[in-house]
C-alpha cells in the first residue's frame, strides 16, 4: 500500500503548547521505517502549511480561538487528504492537536461523496470534542472539531473545505471517553452518536466493546480512525496535553487498531496530541508508531 505521512504541527486548537512537535517525535520514533518493514511504500509531506507561532497570532473569537489560522491549515490538509484517498492511497495524518480532524475528516468525506460510499468515524479519545460556541468551557477548537464535522457549530467550521455536514453523527462511534462536558453530552445525545465510555469497558470488558465497534461499522464503506493519545492511561502515554487517569492500556489500544485493520474498511487515519515536552523518553511517540503499525497490518504472529 502507498501510505502518505502528513505532518500537521498545529497546536492552535489547544491551551497547552508542545503538540506541534508531535509529528517530529513520531518521525524520530521510526514511523517510516516501521511501515516500510510491513511492505508499504511511504511518502512524506512535511510542508503542508506555514503560520506564525500561536504567541504571535490574534486569538480572535474567545469561543473559537485562532479560528482563521486553524481554518486555513485544515483546508489545505483536507485538499491533500482528498487527493491522496481519491487515488486509493492511504493518508496518515500526524498531529498536532485534535483540531486537525476538521481537515482530515473533510478530505476523506469528500472522497466518500465522490465515490458514493457511506462514511463513518471511529473517534478514540478521552474527550468528546463535541462542543459548540455555546457549550465550550475553554473556547479551544480542538474541543469543537467533531461537532463541527457533524454540522454543529460555527459556519466557518461546519463549511470548511465544502459546504455542509462532513459525517452523519449516527455514523460516529466513540471509544474510551471519560471526560465529557455537560453541554457537549447534551449535544452528543441529541445528535445520536454512539459512545463506549471507560465505564462501558469496565462493565462489559474490552473484547466485547471491540466486537460492538466492529458491528457498528458493518454497514459503513469507508472508516476514518481519529486517535487521540490522551485516551490512553498516562502510565502508558504520559506525553499528552490533557493526561487523565483511568484510560485504555497499551494492549487494549493495540488490539483495537489490529481489529480495525481486519475490517479492511479503514481508508484514512490520524494520531494526535503527542506532546514531547510532557513525555518520558519519547515513549508516547513510540507507542503512536506501534498503533499506526497495527492499524496498517502489523500482527504479533
Automatic annotation (TrEMBL):
Pfam family, one: Arginase
PROSITE patterns: ARGINASE_1, ARGINASE_2
Enzyme class: hydrolase
Keywords: Arginine metabolism, Hydrolase, Manganese, Metal-binding
Entry GO terms, CC: cytoplasm
GO MF terms held by the record: arginase activity; manganese ion binding
Family: Belongs to the arginase family.
Co-factor remark: Binds 2 manganese ions per subunit.
Pathways per UniProt: Nitrogen metabolism; urea cycle; L-ornithine and urea from L-arginine: step 1/1
InterPro entries linked to this entry: Arginase (IPR014033), Ureohydrolase (IPR006035), Ureohydrolase_dom_sf (IPR023696), Ureohydrolase_Mn_BS (IPR020855)
Residues the entry annotates as binding Mn(2+): 98, 125, 127, 129, 228, 230
UniProt EC number: 3.5.3.1
Full protein name: Arginase
Reactions catalysed, as given in the entry: L-arginine + H2O = urea + L-ornithine
GO biological process, one term: urea cycle
Cofactor: Mn(2+)
The species this protein was found in: Treponema berlinense
Amino acid at each position: 500500500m502507498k501510505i502518505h505521512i502528513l505532518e500537521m504541527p498545529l497546536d492552535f486548537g489547544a491551551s497547552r503548547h508542545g503538540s506541534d512537535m508531535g509529528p517530529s517525535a513520531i518521525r524520530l520514533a521510526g514511523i517510516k521505517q516501521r511501515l516500510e518493514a510491513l511492505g508499504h511504500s511511504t511518502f512524506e509531506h512535511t510542508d503542508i502549511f506555514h503560520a506564525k507561532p500561536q504567541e504571535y497570532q490574534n486569538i480572535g473569537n474567545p469561543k473559537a480561538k485562532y479560528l482563521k489560522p486553524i481554518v486555513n491549515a485544515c483546508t489545505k490538509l483536507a485538499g491533500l487528504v482528498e487527493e491522496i484517498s481519491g487515488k486509493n492511497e492511504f493518508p496518515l495524518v500526524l498531529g498536532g492537536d485534535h483540531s486537525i480532524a476538521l481537515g482530515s475528516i473533510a478530505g476523506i468525506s469528500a472522497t466518500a461523496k465522490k465515490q458514493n460510499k457511506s462514511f463513518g468515524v471511529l473517534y478514540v479519545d478521552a474527550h468528546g470534542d463535541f462542543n459548540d460556541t455555546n457549550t465550550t468551557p475553554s473556547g479551544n477548537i480542538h474541543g469543537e472539531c467533531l461537532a463541527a464535522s457533524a454540522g454543529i457549530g460555527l459556519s466557518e467550521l461546519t463549511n470548511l473545505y465544502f459546504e455542509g455536514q462532513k459525517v452523519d453523527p449516527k455514523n460516529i462511534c466513540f471509544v474510551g471517553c471519560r471526560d465529557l462536558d455537560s453541554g457537549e453530552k447534551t449535544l452528543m445525545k441529541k445528535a445520536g452518536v454512539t459512545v463506549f465510555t471507560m465505564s462501558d469497558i469496565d462493565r462489559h470488558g474490552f473484547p466485547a466493546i471491540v466486537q460492538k465497534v466492529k458491528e457498528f461499522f458493518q454497514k459503513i464503506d469507508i472508516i476514518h480512525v481519529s486517535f487521540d493519545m490522551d485516551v490512553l492511561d498516562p502510565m502508558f502515554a504520559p506525553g499528552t496535553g490533557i493526561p487523565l487517569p483511568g484510560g485504555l492500556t497499551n494492549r487494549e489500544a493495540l488490539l483495537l487498531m489490529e481489529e480495525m485493520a481486519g475490517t479492511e474498511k479503514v481508508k484514512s487515519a490520524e494520531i494526535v496530541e503527542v506532546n514531547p515536552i510532557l513525555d518520558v523518553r519519547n515513549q508516547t511517540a513510540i507507542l503512536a508508531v506501534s498503533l499506526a503499525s497495527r492499524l496498517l497490518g502489523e500482527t504479533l504472529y
